[in-house]
Amino acid sequence: MKSDLHIHTLYSDGVFSPEKIVDTAIDVGLQVIALTDHDNVLSYPVAKEYLKQTGREDKLEIIRGIEVNTLYKNYEVHILGYFMDVENSDFQSMLKAQQQARVKQTKEIISLLSKKEGIKIKFEDIKKQVAEGGSIGRPHIAKAITNAGGTNSVIDAYAKYIHDDSPVYVQRKTVTPQDAVEVIYDAGGIPVIAHPHDIDIADKLIKELMQYGLRGIEAYHRKHSPACVEYFSSMAEELGLIVTGGSDFHCPNIMNGQIILGKNFVPEWVYDKLIEEKKRIDLA
Angle at which helices 138-147 and 89-112 pack, to 10 degrees? Predict the structure, then answer.
């Protein structure tokens, strides 16, 4: 099955609605997608309902997913989850805490921008950039700064204000990767470490997270070179973990006009292994 297991929508920092993702996925020949917005699972029912309404349920399978933003020793570690029971109380509590942390961080940054830089932004200017109930984050703050005339571009906003050394930046108080993995696993889901190449302590951390229920490594990712894919695939095999992958789609590539959804080569067996793993967890 042709799959893309890492996709973002307007419910976090993606630019497409769930409906547009469904249309695009079918257009590019995908058979399976996972919607993995940051710290919420709201896009899944929207996409499923749209697929049903348009009578194309035979064209595309949609997996409920999530990408949980975590912090560990000043490293930002992203944990993907698939097939969780989203009614699980601990899972619900984690999402609520994550959303509250996002709002608190954003309001504190808005206050510091006003006091220290004279840049006036309203919380609503940031909130309206995402779908109702979605996850606000750094890209939305950067865009609001630019829209308010604080910088000439979003890239400038990041360079000047959205980093730990900036006098107006506040780090988000978020869950640990250990907590995220454990909560996803206990909710019947498959926890996977996302784009591990971004973390230079990945080797050690992956082994530690296995003690909390980590079941996979995202070896296929648009940032991963062929050598990197091989490295993490071999590690997964050695540790008895599954391999996943996806485009980590947020928006079309503006430079060449391409939609990169599904462009990251993910072998068809990846989906089969994911389903096998879900069956194994359900039987455990």
Answer: 30
pTM of the model: 0.94
Amino acid at 130: V
Helix (H, G, I), strand (E, B) or coil at 243: strand
Q: In one letter, which amino acid is 70?
A: T
Helix (H) / strand (E) containing 66: strand 61-72
CB atoms within 10 A of CB 277: 19
Q: Rounded to an integer, what is the distance from CA 8 to the centroid of its chain?
A: 6
Q: Which domains does the chain have, with CATH numbers?
A: 3-88+173-283 (3.20.20.140), 95-160 (1.10.150)
Q: Which of 33, 109, 274, 79 is nearest to 196 (CA)?
A: 79
* Greater pLDDT, 262 or 103: 103
Query: What is the biggest distance separating any 2 CA atoms in the chain, rounded to whole angstroms?
Result: 57
The Cα 225–Cα 197 span in angstroms is 10
| pLDDT tens figures, 234-281 | 999 999 999 999 999 998 875 555 567 766 679 999 999 999 999 999
Q: What gap in Å lies between CA 209 and CA 225, rounded to an integer?
A: 24
| Contact by Cβ (8 Å): 191, 181 | yes
* Tokens linked to 177: 């990767």
What tokens appear for 45 in the block? 């029912």
Q: At what angle do helices 177-186 and 202-210 cross, to 10 degrees?
A: 40
